[in-house]
């Protein structure tokens, strides 16, 4: 089964770009149709444009109510026939209403071995706590931050020489692989249904 994917970003979009390329190179059967950023400074927007993906900046602050914001996102997903939303460094919190409507159709990548180190500054906290392992997790998104059902994880060993930047680099590399692995598995599972 191929998914019609929307990717939501806030920053560089390296995970986004990696998913777009995996689709274009037939590593995945799915297609990325839209990229949504929550701010116009997100570097990923330009990369998505270069790949000829429709891009939209939808800022929460531009709407009077959260319902209006929701409706704008829902309208876009409907019009584009999206059936899977991939969050990739998306920093805005989606409303409960939106998440309820899209339950099990939104996934996220987080740079830690959830349920450990939810939230921000994961690598800094991991290093401060002298952890021996960290990693990354792809999970379904539900109303609590970084708490939805875990789909898959990749463990990464932390070396004594690692600092938050080297760890971030190492984990980001694994994130790219893990996101594709999960999407591939989801494509397969969908076929079996
Ligand atoms: C990644 O580390 C991801 O796990 C986190 O935000 C970062 C986004 O990186 N949620 P990028 O924009 O995909 O390069």
Note the main attributes of this structure.
193 residues, globular, single chain, 22% strand, alpha/beta, binds 5-O-phosphono-beta-D-ribofuranosylamine
- Percent range for helical residues? 25-40%
Count of helical stretches: 6
Average predicted confidence as pLDDT: 96
Q: What is the structural class?
A: alpha/beta
Strand order of the largest sheet: 3-2-1-4-5-6-7
Order of helices and strands: EHEHEHEHEHEEH
Secondary structure elements and pairings:
Layout: E1 4-9, H1 14-24, E2 31-37, H2 44-50, E3 54-57, H3 66-79, E4 84-87, H4 96-101, E5 106-110, H5 122-128, E6 133-140, E7 150-157, H6 164-192
Parallel strand pairs: 1-2, 1-4, 2-3, 4-5
Antiparallel strand pairs: 5-6, 6-7
Helix pairs in contact: 1-6, 5-6
5-O-phosphono-beta-D-ribofuranosylamine binds at residues 9, 11-16, 88-89, 109-111, 172, 175.
Protein architecture, described:
The termini are close together. Helix 2 links the parallel strand 2 (31-37) and strand 3. This protein is α/β, with parallel strands linked by helices and 193 residues long. Helix 1 (14-24) runs parallel beside helix 6 (164-192). A 7-stranded mixed sheet has the order 3-2-1-4-5-6-7, covered by helices on one side. It has 6 helices and 7 strands. The protein is globular, with a radius of gyration of 16 Å. The model has no long low-confidence stretch (mean pLDDT 96). 5-O-phosphono-beta-D-ribofuranosylamine (GRF) is lined by residues 9, 11-16, 88-89, 109-111, 172, 175.
């Amino acid at each position: 089964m191929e998914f019609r994917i929307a990717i939501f970003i806030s920053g560089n979009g390296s995970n986004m770009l990696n998913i777009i390329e995996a689709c274009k190179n037939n590593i995945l059967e799915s297609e990325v149709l839209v990229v949504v950023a929550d701010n116009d400074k997100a570097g990923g927007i330009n990369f998505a444009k270069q790949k000829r993906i429709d891009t939209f900046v939808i800022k929460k602050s531009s709407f009077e109510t959260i319902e209006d914001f929701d409706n704008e996102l829902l309208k876009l997903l409907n019009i584009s026939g999206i059936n899977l939303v991939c969050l990739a460094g998306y920093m805005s919190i989606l409303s409960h209403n939106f998440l309820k409507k899209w339950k099990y159709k939104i996934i996220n990548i987080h740079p830690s071995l959830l349920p450990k180190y939810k939230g921000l500054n994961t690598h800094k906290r991991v290093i401060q706590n002298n952890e021996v392992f960290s990693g990354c997790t792809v999970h379904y998104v539900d109303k609590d931050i970084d708490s939805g059902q875990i789909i898959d994880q990749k463990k990464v060993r932390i070396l004594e020489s690692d600092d938050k930047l080297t760890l971030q680099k190492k984990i980001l590399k694994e994130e790219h692989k893990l996101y594709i692995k999960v999407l591939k598995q989801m494509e397969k599972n969908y076929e079996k249904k």
